[in-house]
Amino acid sequence: MNIVAALFILLCALAAPISPQAGEQPTAQHSPLVFEPAQTDLGTIPEGKKAVTYLRVRNSSDQMQQIIDIQASCGCTTAEPETRLIMPGDFTRIKVTIDTFAKQNHVQKRITLTDAHGLSSEATLTMRITRSPHAAIGNRSIFDAPCARCHAEPAQGKTEGAALFAAVCAMCHGKQAEGASGPNLHHHARQALQQIITHGTGNHYMPAFARRYGGPLTTEQIAAISRWLAALDE
Ligand code: HEC
Ligand code: HEC
Questions:
Q1: pTM higher than 0.90 for the full model?
Q2: N or C: which end of the chain has fewer CB within 10 A?
Q3: Range(s) for CATH 1.10.760.10 in the chain?
Q4: Is 163 left (phi over 0), alpha (psi -120 to 50) or beta?
């Protein structure tokens, strides 16, 4: 090894711990493909209407970068880049479409991109969804084909209340049923829980989960979730 190479390696080793990328999370490596801005508020959108926005992504490095993958936290959101290869200092736009069916109040969606080195960047979208009784919501359900993969199928074959809750309820009621887009579920009697989960609340925000009403859960699975929820307060 010549002296230049040795010096180079030494410099890299010295530079690593004080790299400017190391923010609050010193171990997290961020992609040089950065969302600008990282947070976007879409304002107020009536439920049922598709929300479309464009997010700007800048290549902050001095090398060409490639977008390999883009993921949205909920499958109701799609994200498509205009170009995947971005020159140093250049920009691309990502078209984001959010299906607002069954959304209510304050909604937050995360978009994560991954570059060719496996590093990622994240953008957050916030919006306020207003209830619109006149929207063409029709007979749609969160258990329909494009949504069932995440909102129904994960319950298949599960028998434990905790696992079932984590699979198909927590996304709306919070991990410990503390409330999220759906209400807090503590302090409910087991019987009442069983009734509501079976029949739903009469609107599409909280549909009937029982198989006999088109939902994904068996009577035994509903009983298991109700027992688990009622026991949270003991
Ligand atoms: C790839 C898995 C996946 C698919 C497919 C999916 N969702 Fe979701 N959904 C989630 C996750 C995870 C959450 C939790 C909130 C989050 O991370 O965005 C969620 C949350 C929700 C919520 C409540 C929270 C909020 O964002 O308001 C609603 C309502 C919802 N989804 C509706 C739908 C509808 C309607 C479809 C079909 C058009 C759908 N989802 C498809 C994974 C999915
Ligand atoms: C797509 C989001 C979503 C999913 C998934 C969901 N819920 Fe709900 N849930 C809601 C919303 C929103 C309400 C309030 C509905 C209303 O006011 O009519 C609600 C209401 C309820 C209530 C009535 C609470 C009260 O105090 O009136 C119970 C109980 C409940 N959900 C249990 C569950 C269980 C158990 C699961 C999983 C099997 C589940 N929910 C899955 C959104 C969801």
A1: no
A2: C
A3: 145-231
A4: alpha
